[in-house]
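Per your request, structure below.
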């Protein structure tokens, strides 16, 4: 048994690596490669792996670890900020999807219970696929990323009621008390988990870290992740939601970053198994025999979920473009729908044929999702340029009640009011430089407006919005958002509308620098390379590299769009061997006592360098520091004199200042 399991694992990883490598050459996402590998080696493919249960168990761990790392990066504060997306967007999306899909299914089947259950299956989206794609694209913190994460969290919360209502639809009746008890347990466990984030877990981790055992720390983190996921599952919630809550708990401690770095290798390994296990579910022969029916169902699912996802995002105040991106991203079927479908088949709500058709259609939607997200920005740009969406933008702007500023000139436009945008605004305000801010979060706009910020609600990808902010008269445009596709569009529009404007863009990855420069950005600041520059500058400084050499290297890298660092010509350390005497040079200080003979004398009078070999470099008087270059500088009582020299000369100087021979 152990041999068979190990053989299956080797085959899964081997075939996956080969398929992902070949598809990488064709620039196809690795996620698709894992799904295709599963189709090939699964029981319905060439059948190399027939016992999929052990693989599915490891795959479940992959989903848990993915949601755990997302939770760590989220934190309670960020979760509170997207509460409108979770409660408002999620409830609207789930309700609309169930109602519309049930209505369509009723027209086809004439059975109310089966139609409603079909709505249940369609309503859920794939948390694992969507969050993995958003993370890889660096769009978790984008406006459409927030609304998608919020809706996915709500869908995971809906797992409990949907599972409880499944037996009702089969005609087994309903026990109100049983439902109340299960709901009560679910709410209680969520409350306990979140409360422990503030009191129990930080103290526990502090004690673990105090042991200085890395092994114990990793074991504790994995225990918290899997343990809380298992606990929530026992109370009727999904494992994924439990893992997400576990991540939220860890995020409230100061050990969150270390936890992520330790968990990432496990997560990436197990996540590949998850997508392979999904691919194994697809029966290629069945799909080919029922291709027209499956294709029509896939088109129906995509069309309906794009509409409901877009509508739910619009209703909570998201811009039309971001709403459409969210709708396109949530168009697939979720992994928990498979569990729900099995429960429905067991209860007799759906037949084996319906189950196979639904299963095949669901896997197809998952395979198509990476391509959908890849083309989503272009599709959303084209659709939102239509007249109906322009009308929606105007209507939404009116409902927000945000009037745009009077005509400005020579000002700075800041797109995005996250940490970078806020820091920049603070500096501009102190420097009395005119600026305006454009932000997509209506709550942030409302709060900052009350504090006097010149902030306005709107989508920077709209030419009309940029003109209302005075793009044609602005001196600088600073794009500080976590949405690469939106950044590209904003740069193109701004450069076209004002060829002389200076554009500075913040991006997460250095791979985007060249593309953004070609579109018209003057400066692109990638976070990952700025961190690298800061690290190497400090390391070289510790090895006594001259400061001007380090500064020249940094400036050269930045001026060449960060390409220099890929093949950088670093001066060799032996060129600075003459600086090896630096450790022998020391600093020392002396406070002139009351009535000292030094008081009232100038630097020239004392002839310190001639008599002791040290050099006075500065004098602090009260709270003011004087850099000494003038030999006529006169010393006073209580002055703190700072001087430099080797150890012997410093000893002589201290004796000289004290008046000793």
């Amino acid at each position: 048994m152990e041999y068979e399991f190990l053989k299956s694992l080797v085959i899964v990883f081997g075939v996956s690596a080969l398929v992902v490598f070949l598809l990488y050459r064709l620039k196809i996402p690795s996620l698709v490669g894992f799904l295709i590998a599963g189709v090939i080696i699964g029981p319905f493919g060439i059948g190399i792996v027939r016992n999929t249960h052990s693989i599915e168990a490891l795959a479940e761990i992959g989903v848990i670890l993915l949601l755990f790392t997302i939770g760590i990066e989220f934190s309670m504060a960020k979760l509170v900020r997207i509460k409108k997306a979770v409660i408002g967007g999620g409830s609207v999306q789930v309700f609309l999807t169930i109602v519309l899909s049930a209505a369509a299914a009723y027209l086809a089947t004439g059975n109310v219970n089966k139609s409603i259950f079909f709505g249940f299956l369609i309503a859920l989206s794939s948390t694992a696929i969507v969050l993995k794609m958003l993370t890889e694209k660096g769009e978790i913190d984008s406006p459409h990323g927030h609304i998608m994460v919020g809706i996915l969290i709500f869908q995971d919360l809906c797992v409990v009621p949907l599972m409880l209502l499944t037996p009702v639809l089969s005609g087994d009746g309903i026990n109100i008390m049983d439902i109340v008890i299960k709901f009560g347990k679910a709410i209680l466990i969520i409350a306990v988990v979140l409360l422990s984030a503030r009191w129990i877990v930080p103290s526990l981790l502090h004690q673990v870290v105090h042991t200085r055992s890395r092994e114990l720390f990793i074991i504790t983190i994995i225990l918290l992740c899997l343990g809380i996921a298992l606990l929530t599952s026992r109370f009727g919630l999904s494992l994924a939601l439990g893992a997400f809550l576990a991540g939220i708990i860890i995020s409230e401690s100061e050990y969150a970053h270390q936890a992520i770095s330790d968990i990432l290798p496990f997560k990436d390994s197990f996540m590949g198994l998850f997508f392979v296990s999904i691919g194994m579910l697809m029966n290629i022969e069945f799909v080919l025999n029922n291709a027209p029916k499956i294709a029509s169902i896939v088109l129906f699912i995509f069309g309906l979920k794009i509409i409901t996802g877009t509508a739910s995002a619009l209703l909570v105040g998201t811009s039309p473009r971001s709403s459409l991106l969210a709708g396109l991203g949530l168009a697939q079927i979720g992994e928990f729908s498979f569990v729900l479908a099995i429960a429905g088949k067991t209860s007799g709500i759906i037949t084996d044929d319906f189950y196979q058709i639904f299963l095949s259609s669901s896997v197809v939607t998952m395979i198509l999702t990476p391509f959908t997200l890849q083309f989503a920005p272009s599709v959303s740009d084209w659709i939102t340029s239509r007249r109906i969406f322009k009308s929606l933008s105007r209507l939404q702007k009116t409902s927000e009640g945000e009037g745009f500023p009077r005509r400005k000139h020579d000002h700075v436009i800041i797109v995005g009011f996250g940490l970078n945008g806020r820091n920049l605004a603070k500096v501009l305000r102190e420097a009395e430089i005119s600026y305006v801010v454009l932000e997509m979060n209506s709550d942030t706009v409302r709060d900052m407006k009350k504090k006097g910020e010149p902030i306005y609600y709107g989508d920077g990808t709209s030419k009309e919005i940029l003109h209302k902010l005075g793009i044609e008269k602005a001196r600088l445009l600073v794009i500080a958002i976590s949405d690469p596709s939106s950044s590209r569009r904003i740069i193109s529009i701004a450069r076209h509308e004002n060829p002389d404007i200076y554009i500075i863009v913040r991006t997460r990855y250095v791979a985007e620098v060249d593309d953004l420069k070609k579109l018209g950005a003057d400066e692109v600041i990638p976070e990952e390379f700025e961190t690298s520059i800061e690290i190497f500058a400090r390391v070289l400084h510790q090895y006594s590299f001259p400061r001007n050499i380090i500064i020249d290297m940094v400036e050269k890298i930045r001026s060449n769009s960060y390409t220099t660092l890929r093949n950088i010509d670093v001066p060799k350390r032996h060129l600075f061997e003459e600086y090896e005497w630096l450790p022998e040079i020391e600093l020392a200080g002396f406070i002139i006592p009351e009535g000292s003979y030094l008081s009232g004398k100038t630097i020239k009078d004392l002839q310190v360098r001639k008599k002791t070999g040290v050099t006075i470099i500065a004098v602090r008087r009260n709270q003011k520091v004087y850099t000494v270059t003038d030999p006529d500088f006169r010393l006073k009582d209580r002055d703190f004199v700072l001087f430099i020299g080797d150890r012997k000369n410093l000893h002589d100087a201290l004796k000289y200042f004290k008046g000793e021979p």
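Residues 143 and 623 are 48 Å apart (CA to CA).

Regards,
D.
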